[in-house]
Amino acid sequence: MIVIYGIREQLTPITGKLSDVIQRSMTQVLGFPEDKRAHRFMPMDKTDFFYPSGRSDAYTVIEINMMEGRQVDTKKALIKALFSNIESALGISPVDIEIIIKEQPAHCWGFRGMTGDEVKDLTYKVKV
Length: 128
Fold this sequence. Notes:
Mean pLDDT: 94
Radius of gyration: 15 Å
Structural class: alpha/beta
């Protein structure tokens, strides 16, 4: 599950394209299938979205929630791919992008009526 936060006027017009870029990055680095897309966009009023100085109104936070198991180098590659792909596709500078990866044990995930550690038919690998 990926949650994306940004200022409404900046985020709403690019939602579809940003979702495509994020998914492409997840596919490239993690081997996710195209149909494994769980993106939640949280457009916010500028008065409710505080961010560090030196950033523009394009400042965007991407929070990636995933089952633990990926190698450090894999997670770093994903972060770098996101910076690069977002900048080239949408022109948002890496200084205006913040990426947070949150990992939880598989037993803390619930989907399709079971917990993540019970699932045997994932179409992608977690240990990459």
